[in-house]
Design goal:
This protein is an alpha+beta fold. It has helices at 14-30, 34-49, and strands at residues 5-12, 53-58, 71-77, 80-86. It has one domain: Protein Inhibitor Of Neuronal Nitric Oxide Synthase (2-Layer Sandwich), CATH 3.30.740. Strands 1-3-4-2 form a 4-stranded antiparallel β-sheet, covered by helices on one side. 23% of the residues are buried. Its main location: cytoplasm.
């Protein structure tokens, strides 16, 4: 396993949190470009859990989003921040 995920803010079941980290790690193994990493995570969430998921991946961004209850996570893997939410 790569670097440990550090969860910063979350409104999501433990099971979905773990799935988020696993999907993100798989994307990081496959892609280098942030946009591609985000696209992989989004498509996987839409496929597994229905539309509509949104994903932001990067090292420096602010955010303010509205999400469905129990469908939000913001975490770091290494220096990369990953924000995933459903609306």
């Amino acid at each position: 396993a790569g670097p440990k995920a550090i969860i910063k803010n979350v409104d999501m079941s433990e099971e979905l949190q773990q799935e988020s980290v696993d999907i993100a790690n798989a994307a990081l193994e496959k892609y280098n470009i942030e946009k591609d990493i985000a696209a992989h995570i989004k498509k996987e969430f839409d496929r597994r859990h229905g539309a509509t998921w949104h994903v932001v991946v990067g090292k420096n961004f602010g955010s303010y989003v509205t999400h469905e209850t129990k469908h939000f996570i913001y975490f770091y893997i290494g220096s990369l921040a990953i924000l995933i939410w459903k609306s």
